[in-house]
């Protein structure tokens, strides 16, 4: 059996190694268009910033190491330019010319290509997708000592590139088409990232789509949102699209954004061709609907599954949740499953809870809070998605919640999870457990309201706004018209709270206001707890003000 693989990196290289482990006698050839067959794609920005210092550290395997360990024929700088399905041949182009290569089974793993607007091929504009791209940016910085840069795009690569360019002493303007960076998370989570960028020296220009790119005598210009931004160079990080022109020309079935359609075995519409990685359409594990995930984890799993099936092992890829984590200067942000908008779009009657929990026991030195948001189905309590931003322990909680989603767990299951505890690492009630308790409280009748509902709440004279923080906290800032009764004094002052009005309760994080709501509910009041607390409101208002976003008089952005 002769298996040929188009593309290395995550999916293709994993498939090649797995094939050899399962079949010692198979002929295996890997064609890679670039000069590097297996490299740390996600580590590329950190080389630019100097966190990764050696160029060789980016290379996980070389053609020579693949040959020695796995007896695999890896041909770099070899671009497949045609798939002839009828003849089961590939046309390959190298610097020395073109030739044909036959196959019995083919694995298509070309990855994705960066979105490059018109003008982006000019000098001074860079992408960051391959090792060669990375070295080109690094060489430009070393040769020209630029002082300013524009990063176009606020997704994973854009955020990581912005941080690492700042590490090189470069002043960065980050331009993004939406009102927030990292669109996979909800606005309130992204607000902390927007603020962190500003505090770290990056100038985020949000709600500004890139319109034109120009090369100038002194550098480059980017026109976005009707304004012109100049810099010494520009790094384009505007997203990626499946690299599927070969599959399209060969007549393979395509789906979303021309991604290759496969079955659960990673087999395409041609029984002798498998496809894996960023070029493949997959199932969202939560909704069951088709989607795209340009992530290394799914690509590695798919490569293994394709190899299994070629060797007769019935492996099935069940889909992905999109679990991801990113470092943005001192913050960590992680997420899995659906965000709030995606949950509603998928038809769920969903809600969410927002917690402000410490990463470990607060009495142990070094405890720092994280913001954790968990989205759930109101009918079943099933966990649909989660996102967190903070410092140590963020990735741990999202990993646990990713497993919970995969297992189909509900809020009640989160309550029952037996998670490890010692003061330096967690609390006896871990933030994941606390999320389960909070959701169960909402499902059990504790009503809440969110920052998006705040304008209507504050604008009605029929509501009573109760702030249960301390007098000192209240004096530092509060909602207009709010009455301050600290939670520990509430029982003795219930007469000050009218029973003929809806009572909207807030504190700093939502915990004391929850306790206050329980007191009020026990005394016959109709009350609502402010999800996320005043500190979340302050973060959103501060970000709206800094970003020049149109705001309601209460400070909340106007959608």
Structure in words:
- The chain has 559 residues and is an alpha/beta fold.
- It contains 16 helices and 33 strands.
- The strands form nine sheets. The protein has a five-stranded parallel sheet. A five-stranded parallel sheet has the order 11-18-12-13-14. Strands 24-25-28-27-26 form a five-stranded antiparallel sheet, with helices on both faces.
- The longest helix has 15 residues, at 296-310.
- The chain starts with a strand and ends in a 12-residue tail after the last helix.
What's a concise summary of this model?
With 559 residues, the protein is of the alpha/beta class. The protein is 29% helix and 27% strand.
**Count of beta strands:** 33
Rg, Å, rounded? 26 Å
Contiguous low-pLDDT stretches (5 residues minimum) are none
Q: How is the largest sheet built, in terms of strand order?
A: 5-2-1-9-21
The structural class is: alpha/beta
Give the strand content.
25-35%
Output the number of helix runs.
Answer: 16
Average pLDDT, all residues = 95
Tell me the overall shape: globular
Q: What distance separates the N and C termini? A: 58 Å
Helix content bin: 25-40%
Taking the sheet with the most strands, its summary is: 5 strands, parallel
Helix-strand layout with pairing:
Layout: E1 2-6, H1 11-22, E2 27-32, E3 38-39, H2 44-48, E4 59-61, H3 63-70, E5 73-76, E6 79-84, E7 89-94, E8 97-102, E9 105-108, E10 112-114, E11 125-126, H4 131-144, E12 148-152, H5 156-167, E13 171-175, H6 187-199, E14 203-205, E15 210-215, E16 220-224, E17 227-231, E18 233-236, E19 240-242, H7 245-249, E20 260-261, E21 273-275, E22 280-283, E23 290-291, H8 296-310, E24 324-328, E25 331-337, H9 340-345, E26 350-358, E27 369-377, E28 383-390, H10 394-406, H11 411-416, H12 431-443, E29 448-449, H13 454-458, E30 463-467, H14 471-476, E31 483-484, E32 502-506, H15 511-522, E33 527-530, H16 533-547
Helix pairs in contact: 1-8, 6-16
């Amino acid at each position: 059996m002769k298996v040929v693989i188009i593309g290395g990196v995550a999916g293709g290289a994993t498939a090649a190694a797995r094939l050899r482990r399962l079949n010692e006698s198979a002929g295996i050839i890997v064609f890679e268009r670039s000069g590097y067959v297996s490299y740390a794609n996600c580590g590329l920005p950190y080389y630019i910033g100097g966190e990764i210092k050696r160029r060789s550290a980016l290379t996980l395997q070389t053609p020579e190491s693949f040959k020695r360990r796995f007896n695999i024929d890896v041909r770099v700088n070899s671009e497949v330019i045609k798939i002839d399905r009828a003849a089961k041949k590939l046309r390959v182009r190298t610097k020395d010319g073109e030739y044909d290569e036959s196959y019995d089974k083919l694995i298509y793993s070309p990855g994705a290509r960066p979105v490059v607007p018109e003008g982006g091929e000019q000098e001074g504009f860079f992408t960051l997708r391959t090792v060669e791209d990375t070295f080109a940016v690094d060489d430009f910085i070393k040769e020209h000592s630029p002082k300013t840069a524009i990063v176009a795009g606020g997704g994973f690569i854009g955020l990581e590139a912005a941080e690492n360019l700042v590490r090189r002493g470069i002043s960065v303007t980050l331009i993004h088409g939406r009102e927030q960076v990292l669109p996979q998370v909800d606005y309130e989570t992204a607000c902390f990232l927007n603020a962190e960028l500003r505090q770290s020296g990056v100038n985020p220009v949000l709600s500004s789509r890139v319109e034109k790119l120009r090369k100038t005598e002194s550098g480059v210009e980017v026109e976005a949102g009707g304004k012109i931004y100049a810099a010494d160079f520009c790094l384009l990080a505007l997203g990626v699209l499946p690299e599927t022109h070969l599959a399209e020309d060969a007549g393979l079935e395509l789906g979303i954004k021309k991604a290759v359609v496969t079955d659960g075995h990673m087999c395409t519409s041609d029984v002798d061709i498998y496809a894996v990685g960023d070029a493949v359409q997959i199932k969202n594990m939560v909704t069951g609907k088709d989607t795209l995930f340009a992530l290394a984890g799914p690509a590695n799993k798919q490569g293994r599954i394709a190899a299994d099936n070629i060797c007769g092992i019935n492996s099935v890829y069940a889909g992905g949740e999109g679990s991801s984590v990113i470092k943005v200067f001192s913050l960590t942000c992680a997420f899995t499953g659906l965000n709030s908008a995606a949950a509603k779009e998928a038809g769920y009657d969903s809600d969410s809870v927002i917690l402000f929990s410490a990463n470990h026991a607060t009495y142990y030195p070094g405890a720092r809070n994280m913001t954790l948001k968990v989205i759930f189905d109101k009918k079943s309590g099933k966990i649909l998605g989660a996102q967190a931003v903070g410092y140590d322990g963020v990735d741990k909680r999202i990993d646990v919640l990713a497993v919970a989603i995969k297992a189909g767990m509900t809020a009640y299951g989160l309550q029952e999870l037996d998670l490890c505890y010692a003061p330096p690492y967690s609390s006896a009630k871990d933030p994941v457990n606390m999320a389960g308790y909070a959701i169960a409280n909402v499902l059990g009748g504790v009503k809440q309201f969110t920052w998006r509902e705040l304008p209507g709440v504050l604008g009605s004279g029929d509501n009573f706004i109760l702030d249960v923080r301390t007098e000192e906290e209240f004096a530092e800032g509060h909602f207009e018209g709010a009455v301050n009764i600290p939670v520990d004094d509430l029982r003795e002052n219930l007469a000050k709270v009218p029973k003929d009005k809806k009572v909207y309760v807030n504190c700093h994080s939502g915990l004391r206001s929850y306790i206050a709501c329980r007191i009020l509910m026990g005394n016959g009041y109709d009350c609502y707890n402010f999800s996320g607390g005043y500190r979340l409101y302050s973060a959103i208002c501060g970000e709206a003000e800094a970003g020049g976003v149109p705001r309601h008089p209460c400070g909340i952005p106007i959608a």
